[in-house]
Amino acid sequence: MLKGIEEISTTKKRLKFEIPADVVEEEIQRALKEIQKKAKIPGFRPGKAPLAIIEKKFGQEAISDVLEKLVSESYRKAVKEANLKPLVPPIAEDAIDIKRKEPLSFELVVEVRPEIENLSYENIEVEEIETEVKDEEIEEVIKRLCEERGSYEPTDEPTRAGDLVVIDYKTDIGKEAKDFVYKLGAGPFPEDFSKAIEGKKKGESFNVTIDFTEDSIADFAGKKVNFEITLKEVKRKQTVPYEEIYKELGFESMEEFKDYIRKNLENAKKQQAIEQQKIDILKKLLDTHEFELPEGLVEMEIKRITEEYESLGLDITQNMDKISERAKRNVKAYILLEAIGEKEGVTVSEEELKQEIMDIARRYSITPQGVIQYYMSRDGSLEALQNSVFERKVFDILLSKSNKIKKQEAV
Question: Global pTM?
């Protein structure tokens, strides 16, 4: 039972518990009887072994189970009773042990969400962002699609950058290749290699000497190599004619195709505008609210970001200040959004969580079960996914309550 709460700081509390000896003993006896029902003891039928034998053989197991049960139940009741908002699991600073015939006394330290004074999030000014699509933007998309949908066709003209060539080569270091396909100007050989082939025609043979740096491809790294090259084939990308591209992509007319592009660009611009407004709102919330950050939560976020840096091969020592600042900002944002969501009564239903899983599955062309397995293997739960939906709903509220102003009015 909760005896008292010691305030270590605004974000850290020490919960003090004491459970009467008779309650502890009653729980131990109940646990032993549960074990007795299933225990297989030589010479006794299942469930008929004397409790004294069960206690001798399984006593410690029963005590461990009771300890875990009493501590977790007491903690849950205390959190509810004291209206605390824990951010991370509690920590026992000292070992917790059950001593038979004695009260169970223990303490748990828990980090809680700090109280935010004067929480203000209505009428935050955000700039209106232009989302109109211009005709020139549509034309740029069409030209790019004409290029992307084009195919490489054989040509007898001299080679130029971007052409695909098929060559045979021999080298003075014993390396050679047949029907080697290479895109001029695209690597991995040095630029001089492509330049040597540019301007040549199909059927030509020629020599060129290339200096390879130490970090070049393995066979030639750090060497000066003479190539004897025969140009066997040249292919050049032919773009789809402008007036044919809509047919290539399955549209009935150019007008229908342009309408489709316009709608997609408008949707993309609107989404970008919303994301930018969310960033602006969050920045203003962070700038206008000050409160103590929970140390443990900051440390956890620092650890997460550090692992992210390590996976990218970035130097941790040189970036520690940046990591620390980012962690503090993330934690502060998390607490603010959670507090706003709670004030607005935001919840995430099971149906909304299922819909999020379906949306992710469609977006990445995987099964819903695959999405669930990914989050479960990474985090051990779907909490991160649930938090994502929660934060999105909070941002929707913030945007609906914001004050959108013209660019020249922005302050």
Answer: 0.74
